[in-house]
Amino acid sequence: MSLIAVSQRVAIDTRHGERRDCLDQAWAKFMMACGLTPIVVPNDVQAARSLCRAVPLGGILLTGGNDLADYDGDAPERDLTESALIDIGAAEALPILGVCRGMQVIQHRYGIRLKHVTGHVARHQIISIDGQPVVVNSYHNLGATETLPPLEAWAFADDGVIKAVRHQNGRMTGIMWHPERLSPFAQYDIAFFQHFFGSH
Fold it and tell me: What is the pLDDT of the chain when averaged over all its residues?
């Protein structure tokens, strides 16, 4: 199984004065269903770089949760760590996939300004993927209706909000839905992850 570096959200525990890294257990189940093994990355740049050097990675997954600091998010250490992960992925020509916030990290990196959107928190939303209607979930309040090279959009909501982007080099993509939150998992999502990370 390919080893995939997986970023984590930051949860602030005020009672204990702790900043905790955490990941929905559903991600491990989903990735195993895709034939992928998650390697969970702490939100510390030095530790992330050390971990990525120590294991033979097959790709990088940037997960959801936490707004970016530039949009009033409260996890700047996560922003720095995920930026470092993108640098590592680019240097090693690894596939990089961003989910929800992860896609926004990719958009932000390439100068795409996000804005507040409404109507994009729903268990079921019909979007257009490569021109075909597909039902997905949606849990975000920031989005964009325009893109810039080297990114191109390949999925849209009916209000024009971009739901997926991909880099022209084919090694970086982002989606705004959460495949790990479906039960059972969608075969479309499993096939997509398998194809993108080359696990089958």
Answer: 96
Residue in this structure with the two tokens 């929800």, named with its chain if needed: 100
Model pLDDT for residues 32-72, shown as the tens digit of each residue: 999 999 999 999 999 999 999 999 999 999 999 999 999 99
Q: Radius of gyration of the chain from Cα atoms?
A: 16
Report the sign of the C-alpha dihedral through residues 136, 138, 143, 148, in that order: negative
Quickly tell me which residue has 């969608």 as its tokens. Answer: 186
How would you label 66-77 residue by residue, b for 16+ Cβ within 10 Å and e otherwise?
Answer: bbbeeeebebeb
Strand intervals (E) in the chain: 2-6, 9-13, 18-22, 36-40, 57-62, 96-99, 115-116, 121-129, 132-139, 142-143, 151-156, 162-167, 172-175
Task: Determine the average pLDDT of the residues in 18-28.
Answer: 98
Domain count, the chain: 1
**Residue 35 contacts residue 2 (beta carbons within 8 Å):** yes
Distance from C-alpha of 92 to C-alpha of 59, rounded to nearest angstrom: 9
Residue corresponding to tokens 């005020």: 14
Residue 188: pLDDT band by 50, 70, 90 thresholds?
very high
pTM of the model: 0.97
User: What is the domain-level CATH number for residue 91?
Assistant: 3.40.50.880
SS3 30: helix
> How far apart are alpha carbons 70 and 37 in whole angstroms?
31
Domain that holds residue 92: 2-197
